[in-house]
Write a structure and sequence with these properties.
Shape: elongated
Radius of gyration: 17 Å
Oligomer: single chain
Structural class: alpha+beta
Length: 138
């Protein structure tokens, strides 16, 4: 896997992935940025949410669950001193589908957290990670 980050100006950077996608990242105005894009640490938090959502949906589909939606809301705290690593992350999953079985949903989330989600495994070195979930049957 490869990626490249190029400084544009001020505190703005463009990140390019090896798969050909690009995203502008920027700092807050009080740090010299112009608020043109997400902060780099926000990108990391999004990566964590995306990684676990990917796993959970795939596990539910392989379990023949009729999943139609998955949302992961993330609430995070960071250390007050440099390096300002994540110290606590709460992930709140909302799964939508027809007749989703709570035990299967819980198993999918646990498998993601304990085995498959690479981002979770990296985050857990500095952060306490909590998981909550709810099902919205449609």
């Amino acid at each position: 896997m490869k990626a490249k980050v190029t400084w544009l100006n001020g505190r703005s950077f463009v990140g390019e992935t090896g798969s050909g996608h690009a995203m502008v990242m920027d700092g807050a105005p009080e740090a010299g940025g112009r608020n043109l894009g997400p902060r780099p640490m926000e990108m990391m938090l999004l990566g964590l949410g995306g990684c676990t959502a990917f796993d959970v949906v795939m596990i539910l589909e392989k379990s023949r669950e009729k999943v139609t939606g998955c949302e992961v809301a993330l609430e995070a705290e960071r250390a007050s001193e440099d390096p300002k690593v994540f110290t606590h992350v709460k992930m709140i999953y909302t799964l939508k589908g027809r007749d989703l079985k709570p035990a299967v949903v819980e198993r999918a989330i646990n498998l993601s957290a304990e085995k498959y989600c690479s981002a979770s495994k990296m985050f857990e070195h500095t952060a306490k990670i909590e998981h909550e979930w709810k099902i919205e049957n449609i």
